[in-house]
Amino acid sequence: MAGQPVIESVEVRIFSTERGTVHAQPVPGQDRGGVDLALLVLRDSDGQEGYAVGQPEVLRPAQLRDHIAPLLVGRPVFGREAILADVYRRQRGQQAHLPERTICRIDVALWDLQARRLGQPVWRLLGGARPRVPAYASTMRGDDVPGGLTDPRAFADFAVALAERGYRAIKLHTWHPAYGEEPDPRRDIAACQAARDAVGPRVELMLDPYHWYSRTDALSLGRALEELGFLWLEEPMAETSMAAYRWLSDNLRIPVVGPETVAGRSQARADWIAAGATAISRIGPLNGGGITPCLKALHTADSFGMNCEIHGSGAASLALVAATNVSRWYERGMLHPLVDYETPPPHLRAIVDPLDPDGTVPLSEEPGVGEHLDLDYIEAHRKAAY
Ligand code: MG
Fold first, then answer.
1. Cα 201 to middle of ligand 1, angstroms
2. Domain 7-120+374-385 architecture
3. pLDDT of 104 above 50
4. Ligand 1: distance of its center to the CA of 362 in Å?
5. 375 Cα–ligand 1 center, Å
6. Element of type H or E holding 71
7. pTM above the 0.85 mark?
8. Fewer CB atoms inside 10 Å of the end CB: C or N, the chain?
9. What is the pLDDT of residue 182?
């Protein structure tokens, strides 16, 4: 390994910033509240650093000291597969210390470090298929916030605004148990009907509803979406039963997309494809173990002649969508009538996914994963380091 750079140190820096809008539920006037984040820093033997940002609870001091540092320090920067094999082996029996959201940050920081060393954006190292990708607008969940997504009419009005913004596709997230009465597929269908009536046939529509419907409720929902010309149905039932998804896929014409949340990284996606449980595969870097398992899942789906849609927004997701032609869309959001998505939180120099008027997002040429970190801001707002 003469001349090969090795990882020399691993550090976490806790810093204060303002909450981004992604995944925040809308609280009018409070969507920019203060929050602490953690920056995972890998430094190699030439002084090059690679970064990943996460919540402090997935990058705690004991995790870093007892697991992450021993797995990474002294390892070759370009030896990612060997490092990850050891991470996965250690995860067995250590899930509390190495959950997927922690492994994700290790993986993203490794990719970021490699790409910065090579002076290339990660999306190009992953395959570099497309310098620009179409985005769909991914709405926040239905809610009970005045001016929010309270009823089918609100979804329709928001869909019109999103289509005028340039989006060629919109995915509705309808109501979850926290809001109002128990979710009802008829209420979801009413929102989908209202959105279709509002935007017409020129905008693609998808649905990600309440995740705990029965098979029969999911079936009636899917059949209604077929009539409305929806592009896909996502996670209407708990994904813990692959058999339920196989049954649903067998009984619907509309593509069922998944799984989004099950454990097992790329191997679980292969199982779902082999079982006929899905028509469009799905995985995300945040809860699927990072960029590497997603890349494997993309190639697996491609090998079966299947698309694989990447779950969630952010720099790693965007890089994966641009890497191959296997994903049709980048999921941009989550979006809400009362929430400003376009202004970056102060620790970022720019948002990672600027939307052009034609509904596409250009990829950055900046070396690394494409997070646009403002390291000066992070240093100035550092609260702890370990
Ligand atoms: Mg989803």
1. 23
2. 2-Layer Sandwich (3.30)
3. yes
4. 23
5. 32
6. helix 69-72
7. yes
8. N
9. 77
